[in-house]
Amino acid sequence: MVRFKNRYFLCEYIQENQEKEFSERDLLNEIRDQVQYHFGDFGSAKIQFSFQVKYLNSVSRLFILRVNRDYKSIIWSTLIFMNMFKGVPIKIRILGCSGTIKKCEIKARRLLTKWVHKILKCDMPNQLRNTIIRDYQQTQQILPQITQ
User: Fold this and answer.
1) Which of 13, 31, 130, 148 is the most buried (most CB within 10 A)?
2) What number of other Cβ atoms are within 10 A of residue 135's Cβ?
3) Alpha-carbon Rg for the chain in angstroms
4) Who's near 119: CB < 8 A, 6+ residues apart?
5) Model pLDDT for residues 59-118, shown as the tens digit of each residue
6) Residue 130 has what pLDDT?
7) Predicted pLDDT of residue 145
8) What's the gap between Cα 109 and its chain centre?
9) What whole-number distance in Å separates Cα of residue 10 and Cα of residue 64?
């Protein structure tokens, strides 16, 4: 029996208006629609089996995608050309691609730590600072659960 070989993408979405939050299902459906638009029925059918959003954090704007190894180029090019998400201008940065979700988790932790330290250096009210620290701690607890 041969195991399924997947690739995991660590990505960040950048939106100009921070007013809208997205769910994993919204992100999954939008990327599938974009694959349908760019690659037609062929591309959509190829990624359908193994494509999944493994992690999404709306505070840090990071997400992890899983896709079959053979079709990673379809997702890669779709993410690069994605510029709208439910009518909101958006850009997606691919921060890494790995064969294991553990490596994506390690990179996400490293990026989150840098992001939190950078934000906490700025002057801000204590309530906002406490909210950021709480969200960071929750994210640190959630990340190891996706590898299990």
Assistant:
1) 31
2) 16
3) 16
4) 132
5) 778 899 999 998 889 999 999 998 888 888 888 999 999 988 888 888 888 888 887 777
6) 78
7) 64
8) 13
9) 5
What's the whole-model pTM score? Answer: 0.79
Cα 142–Cα 148–Cα 140 angle in degrees, nearest 5: 20
**Cα–Cα distance measured from residue 60 to residue 103, given in angstroms and rounded to the nearest whole number:** 18
List, in order, residues 6 or more apart from 144 with CB less than 8 Å away: 105
* Per-residue pLDDT at 148: 56
Name which of 83, 64, 75, 59 is nearest 131 in CA terms.
Answer: 59
Would you state the structure tokens that stand for residue 87, as one six-digit string?
């009518």
Q: What is the chain's percent helix, strand, coil content, to nearest 5?
A: 55, 25, 20
pLDDT tens-digit readout, 32-47: 999 999 999 988 888 8
Type and span of the H or E element at 68: strand 62-68
